[in-house]
Amino acid sequence: MDAIISEDARVVRTREALRQAMTDLASEAPLEAITIRAVAARAGVGYATFFRHYADKEALLADVADQLTRAFLEQVRPLLRQKDRLAAARSLCAFVEDHLPIHRALIAGGAGDTVRAEMLRQTLATVAQARGRVPESALDELVLFHVVSSILNLLAWWLRNLDRVDAEAMGEIIERTVLTPVGALQRQPPAGLEPGGPAS
Amino acid sequence: MDAIISEDARVVRTREALRQAMTDLASEAPLEAITIRAVAARAGVGYATFFRHYADKEALLADVADQLTRAFLEQVRPLLRQKDRLAAARSLCAFVEDHLPIHRALIAGGAGDTVRAEMLRQTLATVAQARGRVPESALDELVLFHVVSSILNLLAWWLRNLDRVDAEAMGEIIERTVLTPVGALQRQPPAGLEPGGPAS
DNA sequence: TCGTTATGATACACTGTGTATCGTAACTGG
DNA sequence: CCAGTTACGATACACAGTGTATCATAACGA
Asked: Which among A154, A163, A194 has CB closest to B164?
């Protein structure tokens, strides 16, 4: 199994330049207004070269979102194990604030919808893999979907209104509007769901 | 002020055909795969005729979303005045279930992201206009944003999983994960927000 | 240093958009 | 019912963006 032995320096350089260019442009214009030619130009790379690395615009954006999501999850994972949800939410907001430019460009920028969708997709896949396997109850699946998409939405709003709410308050809002209510729902689920629900 | 005296019957017919065609196609394919030519063809209308009514694809979709939002708000408004949040949430889900095809096509379909964004936009504008005026506190604005987008997101998930959760359970989930937590947040706001917060 | 490989530049076919034009058909007001 | 108005269908067109192909050149790794 000869995995990644050594990647050509030019490839690494070009890919990084393209990712950076896409991130830059995403903070300036909506995704549909970003042409592949513009990305290549900003990256200082030939137009045709783009397609030697990514099939299309979305593939590059997915790669960018993928890297962001990895850092995101790496940061969040240890927080989920602890029981103090408020501290966890505040840590997340502090982390976002510490790496403001990239989060503002990608989560709240012109490609925010696509990036958040990709982050949601990857997070769901990661969690499903971390658990036993995929077959969750409907409630578990819905709760996970709601938590992730709500947090990303709230962060997107916050990143467009940083001057109005500080990180600590934002953490408290996330904890009180998302994390705690969802915990209560899991402890005492409603009826009318598919079988396989609570394992009380 | 000569408003709408009488609209040419052909115009009404063509617009309705285009809206219906867009709705149909949105339930079958992602928005970027829906061409204006396909919409015109499905509507039984000439290609050039499309542009006599809408500037582009998004304008038609906005019109469709606008009509859906009107019906939506008309349905929800009376429920907001009542204090029983659970009953209100269940009514909303029952309403969606009663008009399943159009909601599934537009909220959960291939143009779901765009439609939900447009519904959010219009709802925010409507509420801002209904209140005194625009200048709300940061908390109010964030809460409203969160409530509307969360509900639309939850409905989108539900419309893709109708067989797993019934309308009553879905209403309870919305009430417990969105409405009630937000009410508690408004009654006891966190610190760290811009001035103009609670009017206690 | 030498063979390999990524890159730049350029040309090309293709698809979708939006505009312009003109003869025809349908509607409205009288 | 009729005459003027107006929307429609069809077609041609310019334009922009995508994705592919080709080839000489430069940069890389061993």
From this structure: A194
List of residues 6+ apart from A75 with CB closer than 8 A: A91, A92, A95
Binning pLDDT at 50, 70 and 90, where does residue A196 land? Answer: low
Q: What single-letter DSSP state applies at residue B33?
A: G
Q: How far is the CA of B138 from the C1' of C6 (A)?
A: 51
* Nearest chain B Cα distance for residue A196, angstroms: 11
Is A185's CB within 8 Å of B173's CB?
yes
Q: Which of B149, B163, B164, B166 to mutate to test binding with chain A, by most A CBs within 10 Å of its CB? A: B164
Summarised one tens digit per residue, pLDDT across range B148-167 is: 999 999 999 999 999 999 99
pLDDT digits (tens, 9 = 90+) for A32-69: 999 999 999 999 999 999 999 999 999 999 999 999 99
Q: Which of A127, A154, A138, A80 is nearest to B173 (CA)?
A: A138
DSSP string, A15-46: HHHHHHHHHHHHTTS-GGG--HHHHHHHHT--
Which of A136, A164, A172, A179 has the most B C-beta neighbours within 10 Å, making it the best mutation to test the interface with B? A164
